Structures
1.
Amino acid sequence: MSTPEDGMTTFLRVEDLHAGYGGAKVLHGVSFSVERGSVCAILGPNGAGKTTLLRALCGMVKVRGSLVLDGDEVAGRTPDSMARLGVAHVPEGRGTFGPLTVAENLRLGAYPRRDRAGVEADLRRVYDYFPILRDKQHDPAGGLSGGQQQMLAIGRALMLRPRMLLLDEPSLGLSPLVTQELFGIVRTINEEEHTTVIVVEQNAHLALSVAHQAHVLETGRIVLSGTAAQIRADEQVTRSYLGYRVQS
């Protein structure tokens, strides 16, 4: 996948977005858009503001500027409100609840929903994506391996039946084999469920292999936008802005 399908429309539009923590400003007038049903990679060096951007999109930090989701202005909404709008966030570090079982963690992801039959169907769907979670559904989440906890975190987000899935460094601390498996599932989720996905990822080569479009952040500003193919092809730009070579 290198470009969105013809006829896609804008699902998320971000304009002049500012965000930070207390007096520390992290995002400085960020503007970009994400097409409906696409995978969008957010790339950039450490400290560029990628995590803060995802937190801004799900209501975790105060923002100034415009966030238009599927035609509605949502800037200033709380995380709970954003979840009810179908925005699911998988934070860096996974954030699973260790003492609870795998099944209990998954059901927590569906807390805003009232369609019991749909929740049960989605639980089966998550187990189909991640069979190891079915095998360990009665085990405490804290006993899972790092890769299994990342699967659980993504599975819990899917229980919301999200319209937009935000993934923050999903490969962090995982083996290359597990990372490839996870990104393959992200691709499948996007293709089968038509879920819009925004992924922050240090492994630019891997992120661009599943993305339709990409935006590069540097010191809180978008410095480059394009299709994944365009970003991959521009080695001089990726060396300058990312600090490493994006493999072909």
2.
Amino acid sequence: MLVPADTAQDVRERAEGVSAQVAVLPVGSYEQHGPYLPLATDTLVACAIAREIAAAHPVHLLPPVTVSCSHEHAAWPGTVSISSVTLHAVVRDIADSLRRSGVGALVLVNGHGGNYVLGNVVQEASARGERLALFPAVEDWEAARERAGVVTSLLSDMHAGEIETSILLHVHPHLVRPGYESADHLADDRRHLLTAGMSAYTDSGVIGRPSLGSADKGKALLASLVDAFGATLALLTGDGPEAA
């Protein structure tokens, strides 16, 4: 199972959010995250962010997209991908379906850096006059990193590092296996990543400093992202200065 089973309270909260005009769609992936984090890490991270957002803001929380564009991780068993064309189509279909049911805006909460196509989906939809957004932005992650006291830069903290390990230690500590304490590996120069894949830069699948991860940092990261989401919500609903 990729995400925890729904509780009765989860179902009630989502039902109450159906009247919201903004929906939140977590988009994760199913790919290797070193020997100590689960294949569903990016989905779990996206779901954690989306659930915290839904608890603090009037949005309709959707179930996640759990398989996406992880082609750069294909060298490791267990990684599963779909094409960028397929992911583009899935997101567009979901947005179209929501509009037909009266939910006019959609926020894609992306948990996987390789889902480049999501930016194109949002750009194209916005050009058509539709209301889509991609969250978190790099600036949101940078602010969260600083607020949480994350030591590793966003460049170095590429995969299964301090940020992802911290969030899982906070929300799903039972899924973090021993070994992250000694798995640090840096590879800041990754200019040929798209051509050569992750295996050209790491033997373990890790690029970052997971040894610095902590549950407290994970909690602070999520709190910062929840606060940052307010600007995105205001932009989509026309309630903030960004919409002027």
3.
Amino acid sequence: MTPNDATATTAAPAPVTSADGREPILRARRLVKTYGRVVGLDGASLELYPGEVLAVIGDNGAGKSTLIKCLTGAEIPDEGEIWLEGRPVHFKRPQDARAAGIETVYQGLAVSPALDIASNLFLGREVRRKGVLGSVFRMVDQKGMRQRARDELNALGISTLQDVTVAVENLSGGQRQAVAVARAAAFGSKVVVLDEPTAALGVRESNQVLELIMSLRDRGIPVILISHNMPHVFEVADRIHVQRLGKRAATITPQSHSMTDAVAIMTGASAG
């Protein structure tokens, strides 16, 4: 089954539009995921609209990671539906989500330190040279990949990575994060998911990553941001999905609620 395969009997969900009339590009409805007696998701729902940054916050054990894994093919929900651009999708592995245009940058980054920047951007998607050299001898187009890598970094405004031939092991933590985000932006045609992208980074490098997130939004790429860092969430998020006890407790905005309000909803002190 391909990522966009749908069963003929699946009924379309009721329309959920934003204030300006947009429909979600990605929607999850009543997702359930259990691990034996442990409930990871208990009817969780989520909507991501075009051109927005949606932050997902919640206490440890709230189901944030499980929700994201279901949306990106790392886990298969026991119940519920996922819709991408108005069509039901059934991701059975991360490759299915990537093929559908959903790219994920996990906290571990998954970069190869020994390879250079350009090779990391095209890791697993290497471009072969044209003609016999590519089809028969399977030679990669190193020059073409390096040029596209430069173009992608420039489009995101990443000025600290001018030499794409530098090995990733020689980069700082923030620069490595930039490489991972650039890779997601290059191939995430519909959605980019960022899992704790500023964790373990200093103030300056964290600010650079936040600028990258806003650059993605400016390019029209919707972003799901999972973070424990409330100041960062309130700086870049358009909407904030609050996860609690395996389901959505509330969806708020930085304009409608304060950080204190968000924490109260997370802990159950407030219903939102």
